Amino acid sequence: MDIALKQIPVAELNPGNNVMQSPRWAAVKGLLGHEVLGFELDTSDGRDTLLAIMQQGPRGRRIAYLPWAPRILPVSASAGCFLEQLSDELQHLMPENTLCLRFDLPWQSPFDGEPPDDVIRTMRMNFGTRLHAMRKAPTDIQPTVTIVLDLNQTEAELMAGMRSKTRYNIRLSQRRGVRVRTAAPDELEIWHQLYTETMQRQNIPVHPIGYFTSLFHSRVNSPSGTRFKLLLAEHNGVPLAGLILAITGTAAVYLYGASSSRRRELMPSYALQWYAIQSSKVHGCTSYDMFGIPSVPSPDHPMYGLYQFKKGFGGTVVCRRGCWDFPVLSQEYQAVGLHELTRGGYHGH
């Protein structure tokens, strides 16, 4: 495959429907203190742009993280050959202290459900490559399994595709007076209180409010037009649930959700999610990503309740390939422990 790469300003990124590769996402990460780099990619299979976010890695090195990239799915070469060739070119455009490139691939996984162990996956990815250099990363940052709703359907068709209990809970919430509205960015403190309660309830580390402020304070002059929307579900003016929605092109992504332990019998999260789906349709979106479910939906899984909630809205389960590393400093990469190469997800980086 023929590959040509050049660096470009991140404002010139062309993400299509990919929020993680948008100029707005680059601006968010820049506000959070990351160095962000943009590249234009020309191949015999198409053209793309790439956003790389420089993360702090082990031992003073950095990891070049490319979320949901590349979008191009190779036709004239295998996935492994394409990634290796791309990485071999891209490494020369990276800062000197780059330990590895980390691609969080948006491509459909060849496996349904739980994939085989990393040794087998790595052998398969490197089959037919020249350097045999790609490595399954020790962690996945963005969710690898999700549910995507087709918003080309009418609201009636979307309702018909839901589980009957989900339809019932949406209507129950509305009948009991739960109201959902689009909130202003200066109401993020209300959101953050709900979010903090949710994370503490699930024993998950809490992002400071500045992390979410950066979403709404980032501004770029770009035709991609990525937007973030803060939605709140309330009962008699009391906030009970909230979510942050990202819209890029014709794709909507449910990025963050939160709910209070109070008045759960009012089912506010159901009314909230339905409002987000309706709002996405109004904005011209054709897909709605529920953003993360367990790869194996077992009742023993700590996220099983969230899986049941999301699955109730219908949609199609989508499995992505997850994170793959190309070591730039090979000897140092091999020497560091797996725990040093691990960064937590989802979408925290």
Helix amount: 25-40%
CATH superfamily heading of the largest domain: Gcn5-related N-acetyltransferase (GNAT)
Number of strands: 13
The Cα radius of gyration reads 21 Å
- Structural class by SSE content: alpha+beta
Choose one word for the global shape: globular
Q: What portion of residues belong to β-strands?
A: 25-35%
- Low-pLDDT residue intervals, each spanning 5 or more residues: none
List the domain count as a whole number.
2
* CATH fold node name of the largest domain: Aminopeptidase
Helix-strand blueprint:
Layout: E1 3-8, H1 23-31, E2 35-43, E3 46-56, E4 62-67, H2 79-90, E5 98-108, H3 118-125, E6 135-136, E7 145-150, H4 155-160, H5 164-175, E8 178-183, H6 188-201, H7 209-217, E9 227-235, E10 238-248, E11 251-259, H8 268-282, E12 287-289, H9 304-311, E13 316-327, H10 330-335
Parallel strand pairs: 4-5, 11-12
Antiparallel strand pairs: 1-2, 2-3, 3-4, 5-13, 6-13, 7-12, 7-13, 8-9, 9-10, 10-11
Helix pairs in contact: 1-7, 5-8
Written overview of the protein:
- This protein is of the alpha+beta class.
- It has two domains: 3-141 and 322-341, Aminopeptidase (3-Layer(aba) Sandwich), CATH 3.40.630; 146-317, Gcn5-related N-acetyltransferase (GNAT) (Aminopeptidase, 3-Layer(aba) Sandwich), CATH 3.40.630.30.
- 28% of the residues lie in helices and 29% in strands.
- The chain has helices at 23-31, 79-90, 118-125, 155-160, 164-175, 188-201, 209-217, 268-282, 304-311, 330-335, and strands spanning 3-8, 35-43, 46-56, 62-67, 98-108, 135-136, 145-150, 178-183, 227-235, 238-248, 251-259, 287-289, 316-327.
- Helix 1 crosses helix 7 (209-217) and helix 5 (164-175) packs across helix 8.
- The relative contact order is 0.19.
